[in-house]
Amino acid sequence: MIYDDESAERLFMEAKQTYQDRGMMKWIGFYLSDHTAVLSKEAKERNRINVGKEQMSLEEIGETLQQAYLKNKRIAIQLETLDNEGNYPDDLVGKISGQREEQIYLDEEDRGTLHLTIEQIHHVEILGPKKILTEKITK
Questions:
Q1: What angle do CA 106, 61, 93 make, to 5 degrees?
Q2: Are 68 and 107 within 8 A, CB to CB?
Q3: Cα–Cα distance between 129 and 116 in angstroms, integer?
């Protein structure tokens, strides 16, 4: 059957009157799964507790920082500070870009360049390449 513009428009209007669009109802399943995935991810982040690592001496911290700087390695630094609930904040991860008197400059992967003193550091460790975050390089 060949339709001209007028008959095609008439057919479309008839179909439009009989078809009941469910609107947003057809998308609710997608919305719910995405929404619950985001909520569960946020809950995991909120409930995560960073355990305190072994306290390092100033000499050990200095040696590790020097080794990481000379070899241009990524490091993870746990600071001496605690949050309101008595937990350690997330480790600062990055590379040391320089040192001046009592301060070190850390190019942190998320926050940019940070200025730290050795006294602020609780624990520091050298990490493996960025692709392998779980593997740590031992001294």
A1: 35
A2: no
A3: 23
Strands annotated E in the chain: 75-79, 92-100, 103-108, 112-117, 121-126
**Helix (H), strand (E) at residue 33:** helix 28-47
User: Any idea what DSSP says for residue 23?
Assistant: G
Sequence-separated (6 or more) residues with CB below 8 Å from residue 82: 88
Q: Where are the beta strands (DSSP E) in 22-139?
A: 75-79, 92-100, 103-108, 112-117, 121-126
User: Tens of pLDDT along the chain (139 residues)?
Assistant: 676 778 888 887 887 777 776 666 666 666 677 778 888 888 887 777 888 888 889 889 889 988 998 898 999 998 888 888 788 888 889 888 888 887 888 888 888 888 888 888 899 998 887 765 455 554 4
